[in-house]
What we know:
282 residues; binds adenosine-5'-triphosphate; Rossmann fold; alpha/beta
Amino acid sequence: MSDTQTPSGGPPDSFGLSPAQERDAKIDIENLAYRYQPRRRAEVAALEGVDLVVRRGEFISVVGPSGCGKSTLLRVIAGLQKPTTGQIRLLHEDRERPLVAPVFQEYSIFPWRTVEDNVRLGLDAAGVNRNEANSRVQKWVDRVGLAGFEKAYPGNLSGGMKQRVALARAFVVEPEILLMDEPFAALDAQLRKVLQEELLSIVREHQYTVFFVTHNLDEALLLSDRIALMSARPGRIRELIDVPFEHPRKPELRQDRQFVRMEEDLWSRLRGDVTVAAGGAQ
Ligand SMILES: Nc1ncnc2c1ncn2[C@@H]1O[C@H](COP(=O)(O)OP(=O)(O)OP(=O)(O)O)[C@@H](O)[C@H]1O
Ligand SMILES: [Mg+2]
């Protein structure tokens, strides 16, 4: 079964895409704006005129200066915040699977629940039966390298292990779209590399559509099919860059001349905006 829906649950709108784009589109964002209206403070225009089509099965990374609205965009896609204006449409193909699962930078796992109980959360909410849930939890605990820690509490885990729990919790519900907001930002460089490789192989295996926010250009290049560059706030998609490297990709790709050139090029495109943001555009 295939269907489209807006994250807020409203009816889908027609988007003026060509039939080919229509077939390919997993996430359609059209002319989206988001403004925060804090009490007793001036309104903040976080996003303005955002247009983006994320294709089915695509890994797209979003990079841009701090405060340009990356996390806001992700939360709007997740349905956690409603667009101020504009449209967003997600294609939900299999009603047996949840549409989206988010992973955030802060581990956002519950300290009073064991590893396996944290991983199981989404399955309980979805009413998956006990046997099925047990086997899926075990599969993903193993897959993210946490075997033996099922009964451990987060307080006894390192940061990297906590983030593995958060990843397993997203994978276990087998969503169609993974929404990841700087999931490795709090990890040291080595661990980050290990988890990047694991993520790549899991995503390839399961053909997820991934919307991935990062500050790390080298991470964006290693993981993505395309990179969306955002402008300083109010954020909009400034450029879309195809990443041409074949899969499977190995960490050694970082030494490849074209990779290094692309990283430099990305940085030179971003540099002006990053400097503006650091200078107080927030
Ligand atoms: N709850 C809020 N109320 C008011 N303004 C907010 C709120 N949340 C975010 N903002 C502002 O909206 C803008 C976009 O924030 P957002 O967190 O989406 O940026 P970001 O690109 O994810 O930044 P970073 O790279 O630092 O994570 C920023 O200027 C931020 O200060
Ligand atoms: Mg953010």
